[in-house]
Amino acid sequence: MRRRRAMASAVPPARVAGECVREFVDVPAGPLSQTLLALHAAALAAPPLGCRQALLVALRPHIPFDSAVWGTGCETPPRVFSVDAVDFASDQLAAYAPWQQADRLRQAAAAAPGTAFRNEDLGPIADHWASDIHRLYCARFGISRSLAIAQLDRRLRVGELVMLFRSDPEAPFSDAERTLLEEVLPHLVLAARQRLLGDFPRLAEGEADGRALVDEAGRAVVCDAGFCARMEALFPAWSGPLLPAPLLPLVARGGRLRLADHAFVMERRQRGRLLSIYAGAQTPLTPAERRAAVAFAAGLSARDVAASLGLSHRTVRNQLASAYAKLGVGSKVELVRRLAAQDGRGPQGPGEGAASASSSQRSVSGSGAGSGWATGGAGGACSSESP
């Protein structure tokens, strides 16, 4: 066990999948290192939206199973973002819904993220086999043995639930397999998130230092450390998964938004059912852009600004267009407000200051043990249907 723990610490959590693979090339091959190499290689080779299924397939030789499910969602409000399965039919997922509240294994995994559970860990296996959920659901779909584990992102309140199943009642998951699943789960989640985030195009300007994927309601599914750092700086009370109120208009319309004095910029891009939001430092106005913007905000027309500064009309128009883009404004009224806010002469407008953002954002709480992000089953199935 000591050797395994040392190997696990060799991959810093912030490293991307490709870096993990390179770092483990020179590590002596052991059960954990072999598994991690296979997982990260599978993540790099898989299509982004099929990455989690590929990771389950890559896990199979190391912890054999007959079927598996991986669900992601949040607890409050109850929402399943996605479900990936291996040899687990959609009718099995649909049939599981009435049994969610009776699934003790799912509840145990959700209540203790990071700890893997088998049915026999909760009591005699004979008691489970005599239960209604096993007789009426598990036995129907050939599930005799189950292994479940969850991981909870406490900042986003987003959880991952991984379930492995075997049909042979004489083939229980061993203690070693349970321990291995506990050790590889953080790497499974990291590899899937990095693969998904890495597939979205970066900003053309290159100023982004944080990214997040949200659903169409504005709930964050995945985000990197840079995005979380900016969110915590601007919205100290934010705990996810719902984005703070000032950012929700970006989900509906896209575009750019500047928040607070340190110039927070976000863009929305779409892939499938997920929206990508980028965060980064705003490029400051050049002296020439600021002179043109200040004169224009004072009431002069673009031609008057050009005449007063001894520039061509086209040059001033280009400077103003650049200033509008950098400041994230779309009208002269917004320009006046933004410049006034920068000079400390007035508010930035509704929902654009850090103070108003903090007071209006929504905080989501919950332990992860309820029927939200871990809505998927464990003892007999794993997850509810995909949104």
Can you walk me through this structure?
The chain is of the alpha+beta class. The chain has 16 helices and nine strands. Helix 3 (31-45) packs antiparallel against helix 4 (51-59), helix 3 runs parallel beside helix 9 (175-199) and helix 12 packs across helix 15. The longest helix has 25 residues, at 175-199. Mean pLDDT is 75; it is low at 1-28, 346-373 and 375-387.
In quaternary terms, these chains amount to: single chain
Beta strand %: 15-25%
What is the CATH class designation of the largest domain?
Alpha Beta
Q: Architecture of the largest domain, according to CATH?
A: 2-Layer Sandwich
What can be said about the biggest beta sheet?
5 strands, antiparallel
Number of helices: 16
Secondary structure elements and their pairing?
Layout lengths: L1 H7 L8 H7 L7 H15 L5 H9 L7 E8 L4 E8 L3 H7 L7 H8 L5 E2 L6 H6 L1 H7 L6 E9 L4 E9 L8 H25 L8 E7 L5 E4 L1 H10 L13 H6 L10 E8 L2 E8 L5 H11 L4 H8 L3 H15 L4 H11 L11 H7 L27
Antiparallel strand pairs: 1-2, 1-5, 3-4, 4-5, 6-7, 6-9, 8-9
Helix pairs in contact: 2-3, 3-4, 3-9, 12-14, 12-15, 13-14
Question: What would the keywords be for this entry?
Answer:
five-stranded antiparallel beta sheet, 387 residues, 3 domains, Arc Repressor Mutant, subunit A, alpha+beta, disordered N terminus, 16 helices, Beta-Lactamase
